[in-house]
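Researcher: Please predict.
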Amino acid sequence: MLALLLIIVVVFSYGSSFKISLLGIFSIFIFISSIFYTGIVSPLVVSTNSTNIFLTMAALLVYSLMIFGLSLIRIKHHINSLIFVRQLSASLVLVLFALLIVSELDFIPFLNRETLAMQNVGLIDNFTSIKDIELSINMNLFSPKVDLFYGEPSFLAVVIFASIGSFIIADSGLKTFGAKTFSETRSDRFERLSSLIPLIGIFILVYIQSLSSLIYTAVTLYFFINSRKTYKKSRLINLLFYLFLAIVAFSFSYEYFLYRITMEDSVSFIQRFGFLFEMNLIDWVIGLKDASRLPEFGIHNGVIFLITISGLGGLCYLFYLLRHAYKSAISIGLAPYAVLLILAIFSQNGGMFTPNKIVLLALILLPLVAVRSGKLSPSRSLSNYDS
């Protein structure tokens, strides 16, 4: 919630206006109409745990409109906003890296794998009791995975993935506009570390060792290398260095990766994608209206949740955001990367319209709207820009 408040302050600080097209109006209208229809006909599809469906619907609409609104704003100082996002995302990666080291060293009683694993109990869709987890730990039968959020290593992976993506987009935007970044204009040691941010993020993703983190590693490595379009000697050395890291990472992870994508009883895969194969064609059009068909373990994929509660309206909502991300990132050569970032955040877990998801999407959408605003600006001259 504190991060969401920061995002709101940033939007009001850098945003100058909103602009929406007829396509945007149509997309949000059909989405809201579909949500209301599902809420009236089958409220349990929207939320099986809500005691007040009206408040749940109101919160869902507010959060979804906040995400949608991020794609409509115009930035008045696009260079300054890109520098801010670049510094923010770099700070996030460094702070999470430091927290990960502290939790792995296990010298703070309340910040280690075991205590972080206890967060699982607090999840509304998790049926594991505290006694069961404590007994497993005491009997050395339970080895918690790397984690910092929600007892969910893959959620930590998508936070890192979004932070790296935000940094790469902001950094590419600054280079496209010919602006000098802080690391080139100041001697601050923190800013000198900025070139290592993608490398540190990739290291964390490999260390997490979840299927999601390994996929995000491959995507990040590919687009980070591919975004560098000049192949001078130093660039070539960096390219070979990152390829070496990729080979090393794959050599340690390929058995686990192959195991996860070939195993037939993968609980994680079934929870994320299993219900997709049980949906009927009509569900894709009007959403799911029979709550008895909901999977017993819930919907752990935000895209599927979006379709079940709003059908075609949800697809229009998602495609509009993806279209915005693609068109905004074309000028910096990262259009497919931006789309994959948005899809990854949407697909991670079922709670799509929540403060944490808004913050993650804002990390991607804010630098994208800054890039688009700079591209549409009548004058892209930096003569009045104070480094």
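Model: The longest helix spans residues 233-262.
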